[in-house]
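FIELD: query
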Amino acid sequence: MEKITREELLKAKIPGEETGIQVKTGFCGFCGGDCLLDFYIKDGKIIKTEGNCTLPGANGRVCVKGAAIKQALYNPDRILYPMKRVGKRGEGKFERISWKEALDTIAEKMQSVKEAYGPEQTMVYVGHPKWFRPQMTEFVNKYGTPNYGTESSTCAYALMMANQCNFGQNIMLMPPDFGRCRTLIVWGVNPLYSNSVKGGAGFLHAVDRGAKVIVVDPKCTPTTEYAQLHLRPIPGTDGALALGMARVIITENLHDCEYIEKYTYGYEEYRDYVMDFTPEKVEEITGVPKSDMIRTARMIAAEGPTSIMLSASPVVHNINGVQNGRAIGLLMALTGNFGIPGGFAGPGPARAMLKDSFMGTKKDREHPEKGVNYGEFPAWDKLTSRELQVEHIADFLLGNGKYPIRNLISFGMNHHMWPRPDRIEEGMKQVEFFSCADLYMNDTCKYADILLPVAVTQEREQIELLGPQMVYYQPKVVENQGETKNDMEILLELAKRLGFTLGNPTYRTYEEYLEDRLSPTGLTLDELKEHGMMPAKHIMPARTTEDIMKVHTPTGKIEFVSTILKACKKEWHEGVPAYHDFRETLPMKEYPLILSTGSRKPQLFHSRTYRLPWLVNLEDCPIVELHPEDAENYSVKTGEMVTLETPVGQMDMEAVVNSSCLRGVVNVYHGAEDYDINLLVDDQYIDPISGFPGFKSYCCRIRKKEA
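FIELD: result
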């Protein structure tokens, strides 16, 4: 047999002494998930990634984004050194400085504003990643500003608010019970594209088990191919669809009367409200055939246990989003599927716990009533007091709040994620001081006075749980490029300059933070480093149905009528999950098409992936997708340019005729700097309860662009 040469081994990236290639296992982290990858390393650099298949919870899969991670690490847009602005804001002209000068400058600006005007005139913002947010809350509290916000102002919190109104403040974003449900409703999410490979694998596990799948999604996707029923509501009408299902369940006596009597509040008022949502009316509102809606309602009630899979954003990226989310969730209470095995928020096994996990941390801001927009969203102030709703960040920076914001201190900020980013740019030009800590030189960074280079996931040590009870230590996969630091190291340095410390006990180093994070497990950092992976010594007891049903609402019961919303006494804050039709608020005669943005492609994750050639070159993006009948009406063919116009602007984009779209709905992908669809969405078009923008259901018109 002919011997394989070293050159051939290197070309195939085969690890071993002969090639000098080694394999290290660690977390991807690109989209915020915790997928485990094997990183192939040559001369200190990652040259290839594969899915890990040896550690608990790993399945050997890697998504297309994880496969391209070396292009993210070694991207020419990476910020590798601290820098200060030398040109006009927005020009992107910077010169390298030392970490000392950069951090001293930020601390001096924060301290001088605090002394002259008060700490509240400094605003702190955190986008991606999220892992250090609990410590950021401590940081802003000790500095003294209540004006701390995150990307969750347009991401997860509206759905969390819906769940909290229904089921109590300890219920946030609950994963479906893939392993025990008989019926699985996948509502407004495409897990085979938009979730990590672990989420997609969970869905496929439920399918393989024989669970009946119902998908509620306006588009046809790979996920809908697995559905026994595919309901395609007009975007933004999900609440009416859920209320119609509730009426069917009640009128056919399929609801769980004993459960409702024992565990819920406000059922009679809710029952009376849903009676108006007849199958005929719901079909007219949503476009879903009444026969499909009725069949779905019967399956939810009669073929349980039933679980629901919801994404953090699609249902709530509508101006009636919180109430729509409440209406969907209450189907679980109506049928007795909340808190049971196989249902929504069901019992779970005994688990290890790490200190200050992002979603489980409830460190509130001090004095939120001093916030720049306190009172504008009273339900937000009650339910999400740990953060400021920053949807109107443009107004804050332009001086249109209760008081001016003079300093903006940001970590991982992308102003294109909000509607009307052009208005935010005007605010970033005017703010007195602006610092950005980030991975890449993005459009937001170009407006900053100081830039701080941040380490990626593979450039820092991490501790995570693998499964319910196994604790895993990831050393650095590769050494830091340039002078990058991780976000916690930056926070500790800033805190020291501002005269306070973080952590209890105090963190002097990143390793002391890791030691404290590990403390609930009973393990020490040294022994975990020695073994790499160990079972936790201290375990939280299993959560039972009895535990779950002790809900943390004002009434102590699941609330069909939300006492928190009702007490707000504001428009659209009804106690019942009232449906408001977004079309009644828009100039639909002049702009007759519904604009829906934000659908996922497997290779895209917001704007980050548009800078990676392997991913962005897979296909032309972004594109305007039209149903064939709409395309025919406007004489548009695939590949032709159209002008898309909304009440706030217009843009020329390439059209694609796609039969998976609904008639009358225009779908546009988001995240591309050159074709930012958010420029065309009004930043005043928001949910009055959560402040979330109506990305999924705005209005537009198109015309073919002549050559």
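FIELD: remark
The chain has a mean pLDDT of 94.
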